[in-house]
Amino acid sequence: MLLGSGVGAITPMGVLNDGSIIIGDGVTDPTILAAFTSSTGALKHEYGGLEADVSAYSGLIKISGGATSSITDNSSNWDTAYTHSQDNTQAHSDYLINNGDDTTSGRITAAGFTTNIQNGFQFNPYDTGAGDTGEIRFLELAANGTSYIGFKSPDAITSSYIWTLPGAEGTPNNVLITDGSGNLSWSTVSGVGGMNSFTLAGDSGVNQTIDDADI
């Protein structure tokens, strides 16, 4: 085979290896690229191919460790995930469950979550009845049981609010207060204690004196 770049002399090229093709770079003479597995094979992974005959595959295709295979384990969930990936709204409201979690509720278990969008975590109501707003739960150690503490939204909200936490740790007996604009800060409660004492006059003639120690 004789090849030329259009600039230099025509040069001969020998027999190509099985699966190789001739390719040019627009500048120099065309060269050889081993892009296919064989003359009748598939395009290799490193050149954008699947490197496998996928005509008999059904569902998703997995490439792992340089090998292509059809996903067959838990295939119904993979197929559901593939279908939902075609619908952006559905993809955000459903989860791929592939670790033995609750496949009906959409619960997913992971070591941690990191997000860099403004509403990184949004908890929607789980039903339409009274008290059915989503919850944030913090569980106790597994050795102690399954009890938890948490927070949830009220059923009705007049407007959207975000509270910004203080940037430093408070001092003992401080409480969180708001400035009415969504900013929280630590403050010492005034007006409690330091009033010495006062006396309640009873109708029966028995008076009750209350001082700081009683508050």
Protein described:
- The chain is mainly beta.
- The protein has a domain at 175-214.
- The chain has helices spanning 75-85, 88-93; strands spanning 2-3, 11-12, 21-23, 31-33, 61-64, 67-70, 135-139, 148-152, 175-178, 184-187, 197-200, 208-211.
- A two-stranded antiparallel sheet has the order 1-2.
- The chain is elongated and about 125 Å long.
Q: How is this fold's topology laid out?
A:
Elements: E1 2-3, E2 11-12, E3 21-23, E4 31-33, E5 61-64, E6 67-70, H1 75-85, H2 88-93, E7 135-139, E8 148-152, E9 175-178, E10 184-187, E11 197-200, E12 208-211
Antiparallel strand pairs: 1-2, 3-4, 5-6, 7-8, 9-10, 11-12
- Which sequence of SSEs, written as H and E, runs from N to C? EEEEEEHHEEEEEE
Count of separate DSSP helical elements: 2
- N- to C-terminal separation? 102 Å
Major beta sheet, specifics? 2 strands, antiparallel
Number of strands: 12
Q: Output the strand order for the largest sheet.
A: 1-2
Please tell me how large the radius of gyration is: 35 Å
Q: Please tell me the overall pLDDT.
A: 75
Strand fraction equals: 15-25%
Structural class: mainly beta
What portion of residues is helical?
under 10%
Low-pLDDT windows of residues? 86-103
Shape: elongated
Offer a quick outline of the entry.
With 215 residues, this protein is mostly beta strands.
Defining traits:
mainly beta; two-stranded antiparallel sheet; 2 helices; elongated
